[in-house]
Amino acid sequence: MAGKTTKKAAKKTLLVGIDLGTSRSSISADNDKKEWVESYVGWPKDFIARKVVGKPILFGAEAVSHRLSLDMYRPLKNGVIKEGTARDEEAVKELIRHLITLVDEDTENTRIRAVVGVPAESFKVNKVALKKAVAEFAESLLVVSEPFAVAYGVEALDNAMVIDLGAGTVDFCIMHGTVPSEDDQRTVLTAGDYIDQQLYNFLQERYPEADFNINMVRRFKEEYSFVGEVEKPIEVEIPVEGKATKHDITEEIKRACESILPAIVETTLELIAKFDPEYQDAIRQNIILAGGGCLIRGLADHIETVLGEYGPAKVQLVEDPLFSGSNGALALAREMPDEYWTELK
Amino acid sequence: MSDAGNAKLKSIILQGVHEENKRLLEKGYGGVRAARRWRRNRFAVRISSLLLLTGLLVLTRFIVFPALYNGDDSIAPVEQAASGPILPWATVVMQSANNARLKWTPVDINPRELLNYSLLLNDEQVRVSSVLGLDVQTIVIDPGHGGKDPGAIGSLGTNEKDIVLDIGLQLRDALTRSGRYNVVMTRERDVFISLADRVRVANANRTDLFISLHVNAIPQKEYNVTETFYFGPPTDKYTLRLAEQENRGSEIQAGDFKNMIKKISDTMKEQESALLAASIQQSLFSNMKKHDSTVSDNGIKIAPFVVLLGVDAPSVLVEISCITKRDEEANLKKSEYRKQITSFIKEGVTSYLGQRHLQIVEGEHNGRKNNKESS
To answer: Cα distance from B207 to chain A (closest Cα, Å)?
Structure first.
């Protein structure tokens, strides 16, 4: 017994913040390492596929590139783990394990204390399932909603709103000096994936002869997305009958990106309007955009202009959108007093 | 904010995070078990709410409108004056009163059971805000017919399958744009899908609402009627005939049917379907009436459409209007008219969802009040 205690005491403690996203997941650790991976988990379909891919399980871009040989899971698609689907729950567990091993090669001798940020809907529905998924790898765990983690990381703790634009969901969270309740948070489903699908449809409509798939469309979006106006037309090469051909996709990109604006603006206004009128002006002037979607050019200006019709408004972007969630979760982990950590096992 | 103020704020927040996480563990929630219990509670709360609604229906039937239940069995469409917003349960009663084809049979209620269920509303572990409305995330839209099955064909050659596909796609876009729902189509192009496959699509996507779109064809070509169905035994020969027509080629086996029939006892689904049907019908008719004063309201009706039975979630089948009336067919060919029809149906769906939200707010107020009283 004494030996066991000594062994346990000899383990080093690693604090990690994990942002479990619908499209990308990231981890930030207090050993200064941070990594991200696309939120795909794939198991070989059969023993032949297992031989081909050479691994029992694949993650992220590697899984996507071998997708034809794999049973692919994107466990938090639409922002929640599907209840009762064992493979989705298993995929979350494996994804977390993978993320931890990316920042700590010696997990056997490490006590992990993790704060995991999840999409707001998942926070409401799957919180306990997530705890179970992490229990195997972490000594202690706290689950928080993603936008809340972002808010904590940038110290937007009072009279602020975070809008986290992800792939599957856009999550809204109002901060008012305490842990946000469900009433302070909203989720809409017209997010990055929706833009991809819209762009795909618009391009198919305009260039029926062009040969492209949804992955290519996603890349176009990531490189060129904008709302409002751009100075130069956007041209990309798309094969037509096997020959790389330039296509102007300016209008299609604009329409696809702007298709998510009505829901964002409406939800922002609705959340602010529900808040104490004395502080509505303050919140409108402290809006923070996070997540990959905040990189859409002109988005912050657009939201600021629309909100400006209701009073002074200021919309800012987080500095590091890819890691803003995990950095915020790590900040929570760092500042969480020892007595607030409860062992999972 | 000063450093001291910021540190104090952080301290409050960190304590809040800790307590929130601790509370869940201490209450003994646990993964699937918690999910199951949550589902059970959700079911119980819904049942209790719906039993309360049904109770109101019964009271309304026997106390408020006793004279309206005269057993008239005529088949001709009956018009109903649309005058201002009507509560869904009241709509059901009014429709059945004005349209004898719909014989609304209220569910018998055991008052003791009702009392027991109502107690659950005050159980702090029942997340009323989540269970009574925010959980409608996936909506499946089912444009009827398609491919080799054209559905009804108008005298101008218009196919039902094309009309309902266009309205279905527009409805999908309109609901998706709100950002609140994941909308799935059973078909997005002119392709034949069996009824069994439509059911599979809905259940595989764990839909929360299922809306099947159709256009009617009736022998009386001078009539234009609109009506909305949910699953139940046929109430007359007309609805039986219509169900036979729409069920043709369902590819559903007898064994499957036996399993499906068990779902008839699912009161929750039945009552939610009735409310959804009432809301869509109310919006569709009252708006269509502004464009076509001759359109008649057949109200919400019960019929044994297998596609409605097989889907686990609340399900309705909307017969938008009659393609057999020449003027209406000409209208249906116009894209602007189809756009308007789409907006009417969407208004009905969002109104139904809005009513659920109202229930949430009331439930939360009750819960808070009771909590305070008990403390």
So the answer is: 12
Give CA–CA dist B250/A245, Å, rounded. Answer: 46
Average pLDDT, chain B: 68
Q: Is A101 domain-assigned?
A: yes
- For residue B25, which residues of chain A lie inside 8 Å, CB to CB? 131, 342
Evaluate whether residue A25 is within a structural domain. Answer: yes
What does the pLDDT average to over A126-140?
Answer: 77
* Position B118 in a domain: yes
> What is the enclosing helix (H) or strand (E) of A274?
helix A261-274
**Domain final residue, candidates A257, A281, A304:** A257
**Number of domains observed in the structure of chain A:** 4
Q: How far is B9 from chain A (nearest CA, A)?
A: 6
For chain B, what is the domain count?
Answer: 1
CB-based contact A340 B17, cutoff 8 Å: yes
The pair of structure tokens assigned to A1 is 């017994």
Structural domain of residue B275, as residue ranges?
Answer: 88-361
pTM of the model: 0.58
Confidence of residue B177 (pLDDT cuts 50, 70, 90): confident
Instruction: Assess whether A168 and A298 both reside in one domain.
Output: yes
In a domain, B172, yes or no: yes
Residue with tokens 């009617």: B216
Tally the residues of chain B. 375
**B230-260: per-residue pLDDT in tens?**
876 665 666 666 666 666 655 555 455 555 5
Burial profile B54-73: b = 16 or more Cβ within 10 angstroms, e = fewer = bbbbeebbeeeeeeeeeeee
What is the mean pLDDT of the segment spanning B306-323? 87
Comparing CB atoms, the residue among A143, A259, A337 nearest residue B14 is: A337
Over range A173-186, report the average pLDDT: 87
CB contact under 8 A, B12 and A83: no
Any A CB within 8 A of B125 CB = no
Domain shared by A100 and A202, yes or no: no
Mutate to test the interface with A, among B21, B25, B207 (most CBs of A within 10 A): B21
